[in-house]
Each structure stands twice: as structure tokens, then as C-alpha cells.
Design a protein that fits this description.
- The chain is of the alpha/beta class and about 475 residues long.
- It folds into 3 domains: about 1-90, ATPase, nucleotide binding domain (Nucleotidyltransferase, domain 5, 2-Layer Sandwich), CATH 3.30.420; about 95-275, 2-Layer Sandwich (Nucleotidyltransferase, domain 5), CATH 3.30.420.150; about 290-430, Hypothetical protein af1432 (Orthogonal Bundle), CATH 1.10.3210.10.
- The protein has helices at about 35-55, 65-70, 75-85, 95-105, 145-155, 160-185, 195-205, 215-230, 250-260, 275-285, 290-300, 305-330, 335-345, 355-365, 375-385, 395-400, 405-420, 450-455, 455-470; strands spanning about 1-5, 10-15, 65, 90, 115-120, 125-130, 135-140, 190-195, 215, 265-270, 435, 440-445, 475-480.
- It has a 6-stranded mixed β-sheet with strand order 7-6-5-8-10-9, sandwiched between helices. The chain has a 3-stranded mixed β-sheet with strand order 11-12-13. Strands 1-2 form a two-stranded antiparallel ribbon.
- Strand 1 and strand 2 form a beta hairpin.
- The termini are far apart.
Length: about 475
Amino acid sequence: MVVARYSHGQLVILDRLREMVRLAGGLDEQGRLNKEVSTRAVECMQRFGQRLRDMHARSVRVVGTNTLRRAHRKQGFLSRAREALGHPIEIISGIEEARLIYLGVANTIANEPGRRLVVDIGGGSTELIIGESFAPVKLESLHMGCVGLSMNYFARGKVSAKRFARARLAARLELEPVQAAFRALGWQQVVGSSGTIRIILELIRHFEPAATSISAAGLDRLIREVIRVGQVSDLALPEITPERAPVFPGGLAILAELFDTLGIEQMRIADGALREGLLYDTIGRFRQEDARTRTVRAMEKRYHVDAAQATRVEETALGFLQQVASAWGLEDPLAELALSFAARLHEIGLDVSHSQYQKHGAYLLRHADMPGFAQEEQMLLACLVGAHRRKIPLALAEELIPPWNQRAPLLILPLRLAVLAHRGRSTAPLSPVKLTPRGKSLTLEFPRRWLKDHPLTVADLLQEVEYWKTAGFRLRVFNARR
């Protein structure tokens, strides 16, 4: 956990807390978290949660990475974690993890010209990024980490030449599909982040006290020494703590193979990584530089969205939301943001096919790499877009993590009504519509005689009433008397 204050354009780190939970070590072949590891994780978050409450932090972001991406039946764990921390966990994709790592690195090292390769070895995944200045050019997240590799090839901390060779071969198989693309792009400098790489540099300094970076020669010397000793616990080096020892050899094997496969000769170390990247990304949201907004704009262009129609639907949907937010508990900032993004992207499925295009749009939003978005945010967008027309598939909302499984159906309604109101794509301003929410019912009051003058809209509204009746919701429509 990193706590920081943003002051006068600078990020000032106030506190850092670090505990090794090794969540990946508690994941079985069926993707289930065992009780011992999940309990250890929740207890850690209880301690972090107490510190957060004492500090009265104004903005908190919590992310889950590879292990929670892979875990099945994790709702119980996520609920306990949220209660312990007092904040929800965003499960981010591997590509989003890579983007945030690069952001953390780029903001904590000198901004030198040319491309840089950034490497981060985590417990369950390894991220590779090529970027220039503050912009990533290519991102990749590989399914190999120091915890998994150590468990599979270095049981009880035993290290031998054969075990190390097998571990490196496993790493090479993961690297093979991306090797050519990364080497073709090239780079001028290589930067490593994360605890594993930092510890390796500290160990190399036992042999080369003046070393300021990891060299291929220094790495080879360390590997020979570890194999010679044969047992991680016998290294007797202060850097390899009891918590670090069980996962150290897997990280060393991954880094060795990265050096060899990608032809790395020298690797500098950055202070920043994922956590710092989250801090800078959060600052960007405050300064109107939200990566999610850039992603939505890019998707609009990629899928040839009618921007004028998207703007009309967005403005109307947000206006409807303002009228119902208080009564329906939709005052969370994410509700407005999700509705805005869904309105802008509700027609992206048209680029695939007009038939059932809402389903195509939902699929794209659920499975696309969307920088800045947590998985749950993508699923919420997919739910809204997939339900913006025709029958209302409430089963999509049931897959969401609470409280959004309850809030999503209520967000669907203003989006559907906005899409319906602008079905004719008219540029004329929409007449004011008054929405009166009450429990599981909503009354729409149109200007006097408006419904009589718009028979096609009336037909659509009557169909909409039936759709919501099937979903257990009452929708009433009438003209104002004056």
C-alpha cells in the first residue's frame, strides 16, 4: 500500500506498507483460493484498512491482478476484502496492469529520449512494455510469475542445475509468442520494476559492490552461486527474508530467461511500479486526463460511432439520471460515468452487424483491452450496452459484483429511454420529460399534446412498458395536463 499527497503539482509519498501474502500460492488447479491464504490476505487488508481509516484518505483505489483474474467463485473473498478495507477491489486485466506499471515507472525515472523496455515480475504474471516518454507503445502480460514457477520447479527451496533449466524452459515457452514482436520494435534502455528484480540487484552487489544495474554477467554469477549452494535458505543473505525465500528462485529463472531471449545486456531499476502507476492515474482523473475517457474516444473512432447521435443520447440519459439518482441510490460517481460511456458506445455493435447489434456491442466491451478500465467496469458497460434495446437481459446484471448487480437495471432504464427518444436521429432539441421514480416504478410525463403529435414514439413507449412489465418493473407514460 502506498499513501501519497498531491500538492502543488507534485506527488509526495507519505507512507508505504508491504506484506507478502502470496495469493497466487493459494490458487488450486480448479481456480479456487484455499482458506489459509484467503484468510491471510483478508487479515492483511484489515490492517491496511485500519491505516486508511486513521488517515482519512480522500481517494482510494485497490486493484487485484493475475490471481484474482484467474480465480473462480471469488465473490465471497471480494466481499470480505471490501469489508476489511472499506473499499471495493478493482480486478484489472493484464494489459491494464502493464499500462499502470509503465505509468509508475515513467513517472519515477529520468525522461530520456528513445524507447525503453520495462519489465515487471509479479507473483502470478510478468509484464513487458515498450514505451517512449510517458506513452506505452506495446504492452504484454504473460502467465508466469515468481510464485507459480517457484512452486512448480523449486519445491521446498531446492535449486539445482536441472531444476533451473526446466524453470527457464517454462519461461521461454511463455516468451516465445512475443519475442519477435518486441525485438523488432527495439529499445535504447531497459528498466526493471518490482521487488523481485530489486532484490536481485541487491544480491549482485554482494559480488559487485559498485553495481548500479543488473548486467548479464552479474546475473549469471548470481545464478551459479544459487545453484552451487543448492538451497535458498542456505544462502544466508539478509535480502532473502523468510517471506521472500520461497518465491525467489522462480523470479530469478524468469529474469534469466528474459535476458537471454530478448538479448538484454543491462537493466536499470525504477522505484515506481504498479502502485505508483495507480497514484498517477488517479491524479490524471482529477485533472481531466482520465485514461478511460481516452479509451472511449478511441473506440468511437475505431467502430465508426455516429458521434452526434452518441452526444444526443448521452445528454438525455444523464438528464434522466439526475431526476432519478437520489430516489434510486445512483449518486455514486461511477453511475454517471458508466451511463455516459455506455451512451457514447451503445452503437459500436453496428460495425459488426445491424442484427442484434446490442449483443455485438456487449461482447466487444466485455472482451476488448480497454486501458483505464477495471474488469468490473467493463462488465458494467457491457451490461448497459447489451440491454439498451429489445428485451431486457437482466441476467447480465446478475454477473456483476454488488452493489452493481442491483444498480445496473436501474441504470439501464435512463439509457433505454434516451435511445428511444432519439431513435429518429433528429437534430431538434428534445422536449422536456419529467421522470418521477417510486420504488420499482417510473412515471414519464410528456408536454401537453406531445404524445399525440409523435405516434411512432408512443408505439415504442408502449412496447417499452411491456418489456419492463416482464422484468417486474412498472413504467407509466402520460401527457401533462397543462
